[in-house]
Design goal:
By secondary structure, the protein is an all-alpha fold. The protein is built from 25 helices and no strands. The radius of gyration is 26 Å and the shape is globular. Keywords: DNA-binding, Transcription, Transcription regulation.
């Protein structure tokens, strides 16, 4: 499961008491060693720091599959918390959300994480975790576009809190790695050889398509050069090799297998299972059925798992492998089980998606093609620009100040993403709105042209005529009289 791999790193970023030695172990991906070190720290910790350390210890225990011990650590942490009843309830909600996500109980997890994000009084660290948890649920449900939107909201929250959030750099690095992860997963599951994986295809088509997904057969368009933390880097490097396998480069199989073995040695069994499924999918896409079969033999226990989602991918991979081996009767029999399991999953997910849909009942603002091409932070600048087009005094300095960047940074982001400066975008949008009114307003006349322009922040006739002609190769009066 994607979110559970990043969970120790998220916990480290949000914890109030992480000894340097623990930070180093988690960052290096030595999760089992970090759990053991946390246990030793708990025995010698300053009482004031103990609640936070106990919660971190519980997180690491859960990451390595020690669910019962994790629950006990959480309970002890809450008993020792010197906080209001409301904050204790928030902590309990946070712990319950992660426990539910690890157990694939998506409805419960979504309810808990939504509360962390939406309830007044929730601390910044909890809201950050809430958004990341919501992302994990939506990704697990195959709702890649919604998951991508939650990452945008998380990105905005980090931007808004950058002056007070001491771990902002770590969060940005995490977001870069996760966006690359989602782009790679989307490309893999969009491969023509896997087009009958109906559970995922339902989330990859039409409105479910993630905006950051690359065209099939290309390298994901998310740069990872800023990802330097060893834990995150190990994942992004593995994903690059995974797509090499999916594109037919079979000699990377042993490297991918080594990553799965590393996960097993760290005790993160749920992630090891997810990695093996990813390797099988890439093998089936890349025409390496022998490698797929060798990995599937290590996953036989998955089909007996009580969680439908754990069975789902295994059943699809097994059916697809038998189809490629031309063992069609067996393939059809297993694919039928897969289809029934997919329907059961969709039915079970209805509650989680309904909760999320209620939260987003208001239709979100749909960015046009200009806004969608900007980085998340600068989309806010674009929205602000659009909302204030009618103001004559709208300035680039004001737009930059609205999102907390310099004018130079704003100019650079717009130019690199759109090929136009913010001033050029303002002028173009104003001319488009003026033209739309001239084309649709009945009874408009020559004396009304400047009045229409005034409504959109343009009061100078010469500026109007020159800008309008530049955009449409005609004067405003030509549009009006046509």
């Amino acid at each position: 499961m994607l979110a559970t791999f990043y969970f120790p790193y998220v916990s480290m970023l949000t914890s109030t008491s992480v000894p340097p030695a623990l930070t180093e172990l988690i960052s290096e991906g030595r999760i089992q060693a970090a759990a053991a070190q946390a246990s030793r720290h708990v025995d010698t910790c300053d009482p004031d720091l103990l609640p936070g350390l106990l919660q971190l210890h519980g997180d690491l225990q859960m990451a390595v599959g020690m669910d019962v011990d994790a629950e006990e650590s959480y309970r002890e942490a809450q008993k020792l918390m010197r906080a209001s009843k409301e904050q204790v309830r928030f902590a309990s909600c946070r712990n319950a959300g992660w426990q539910a996500l690890f157990r694939c109980r998506y409805g419960t997890a979504m309810s808990c994480f939504m509360r962390l994000v939406d309830q007044p009084g929730s601390e910044l660290s909890l809201r950050l975790e809430g958004y990341f948890g919501m992302f994990g649920v939506l990704f697990g449900l195959g709702r890649l576009r919604d998951a991508d939107g939650v990452l945008d909201a998380l990105d905005d929250l980090i931007d808004d809190s950058s002056t007070t959030l001491t771990t902002a750099r770590g969060w940005r690095e995490l977001l870069t790695a996760v966006r690359f992860d989602v782009a790679t997963q989307s490309e893999l599951r969009s491969h023509p050889e896997l087009s009958d994986h109906v559970y995922w295809q339902s989330g990859l088509a039409g409105e479910g398509a993630p905006r950051i997904a690359p065209m099939q057969g290309t390298t994901p368009r998310v740069s990872t050069y800023t990802v330097q933390t060893p834990l995150l880097r190990a994942r992004t490097d593995y994903l690059k090799q995974l797509m090499q396998l999916a594109n037919g480069q079979r000699d990377v199989g042993h490297v991918l297998g080594a990553h799965a073995d590393w996960a097993g040695k760290q005790g993160i069994a749920s992630y090891q299972g997810a990695v093996r499924i990813e390797i099988v999918l890439a093998s089936l896409a890349g025409g390496a059925p022998a490698l797929a079969e060798s990995i599937l033999t290590l996953l036989n226990a998955e089909v007996r798992m009580p969680q439908s989602h754990r069975q789902l991918e295994y059943l699809y991979c097994f059916a697809k492998l038998r189809h490629q081996q031309e063992r069609n009767a067996e393939s059809l029999r297993v694919y039928t089980r897969y289809a029934l399991t997919a329907m059961r999953c969709i039915r079970d997910e209805a509650g989680a998606l309904a909760r999320y849909a209620q939260r987003t009942v208001r239709v979100p603002e749909q960015l046009d093609d200009i806004g969608a091409r900007l980085p998340a932070r600068y989309r806010r600048a674009y929205r602000y620009l659009v909302d204030n087009l009618d103001r004559k005094d709208l300035s680039i300095r004001e737009i930059a100040s609205e999102i907390g960047v310099t004018e130079r940074a704003l100019q650079s982001a717009f130019k690199s993403s759109l090929g136009s400066t913010p001033s050029e975008i303002v002028r173009r949008l104003r001319m488009e709105r003026i033209r739309a009114e001239l084309q649709t307003s009945e009874g408009a006349h020559e004396n009304g042209i400047l009045a229409t322009a005034n409504k959109w922040g343009v009061s100078n006739r010469s500026t109007l005529v020159n800008s309008y002609r530049r955009e449409f190769n005609e004067a405003p009066s030509d549009t009006l009289n046509r």
